[in-house]
Design goal:
With about 280 residues, this protein is α/β, with parallel strands linked by helices. It is about 55% helix and about 15% strand. It has helices spanning about 10-25, 35-45, 55, 70-80, 95-105, 150-165, 175-200, 205-210, 215-220, 225-235, 235-255, 260-280, and strands spanning about 5, 30, 50, 60-65, 90, 110-115, 140-145, 165-170. Helix 4 (about 70-80) packs parallel to helix 5 (about 95-105) and helix 7 crosses helix 11 (about 235-255).
């Protein structure tokens, strides 16, 4: 892998470039993004050069599509005639089924493997790029067929992911979307609902006075930009509905069990789950 093309130089794309450099990559990194973004990326030393997609595609042997999901889908539909045979294309989209299906239909000259690093922060844009963003984080890899995981370009990509101190985990697109519906998409919607419930339940001045760390923690991701979440929800609506159905059922159960022994059981099981998550994530 000598020439990496990053399409979309936001937080994830910029962090990937910086992470590669820190991990020892000595090849060329080309950025494809808006004029304003590539200027910032060049000034920061995130990329070596900026090119239009058509020109960059003729040079790259690894393409990272780090765009909103709708843009990833559009890029996949035009990329194949532009790339060299044997190039590897991957992405960082938060849902995988529709992306992998589109790559299966549209990419013939290039090899594709879906990707999703479970990393991020509240700040957006290349200015927030961090070479250590992926340290200790899961990096899901969703192949079109499992045999692709053994292909040399994919094996090399996995090596760089490991050098960035992330943990690559193979998963099917369907299993990925079911998992993140519960572990990522449901928390976002629950936080959104909670913030709106507070807004409806008490006047803003009273809410501000009565807010403790619990509400601040649980409402933090309610600040997320809907522009990002629109595509995620659209491309994983069925699995998100299943997750919401489960959550709503449990909320109703809690409401109906106020003052009953079942409430204590639910607190205990939730506490066990929360401790297990923290032990697993933080070691």
């Amino acid at each position: 892998m000598q020439h990496v093309v990053i399409v979309g130089l936001g937080l994830i794309g910029g962090s990937f470039a910086l992470g590669l450099r820190k991990a020892g990559f000595t090849g060329t990194i080309t950025g494809v993004s808006s004029p304003r973004t590539v200027r910032a990326a060049l000034e920061m030393g995130v990329i070596d050069q900026a090119l239009p997609l058509e020109e960059a595609a003729r040079q790259g042997d690894l393409f990272l599509l780090s765009q909103p999901i709708s843009n990833i889908l559009e890029t996949l539909q035009v990329l194949d005639p532009l790339v060299e045979n044997g190039a590897l294309v991957t992405d960082v989209g938060s849902t995988k089924r529709e992306i992998v299906d589109t790559a299966r239909r549209c990419l013939h000259k290039a090899l594709f493997i879906g990707g999703h690093p479970m990393a991020g922060k509240e700040s957006r844009g290349v200015q927030a790029a961090d070479p250590d963003l992926f340290v200790g984080r899961t990096w899901f890899l969703a192949p079109i067929v499992n045999e692709d995981l053994e292909r040399p370009p994919v094996f090399e990509l996995i090596g760089w992911i490991k050098r960035m101190a992330a943990t690559p985990i193979p998963i099917s697109a369907q299993d990925h979307d079911h998992l993140v519906a519960f572990t990522s998409h449901l928390p976002q919607l629950a936080s959104t609902a909670l913030a709106n419930a507070v807004r409806l339940g008490v006047p803003p001045d009273q809410a501000a006075v009565g807010t403790g760390p619990g509400l601040l923690d649980m409402s933090r991701i309610a600040q997320s930009d809907f522009e990002i979440w629109r595509d995620i929800i659209r491309t994983n609506s069925h699995q998100i509905e299943l997750a919401l159905d489960t959550y709503i059922r449990l909320l109703s159960e809690l409401r109906n069990s106020l003052g009953s022994p079942l409430l204590e059981e639910r607190f205990e099981s939730a506490s066990d789950t929360a401790r297990l998550l923290r032990k697993t994530v933080h070691g």
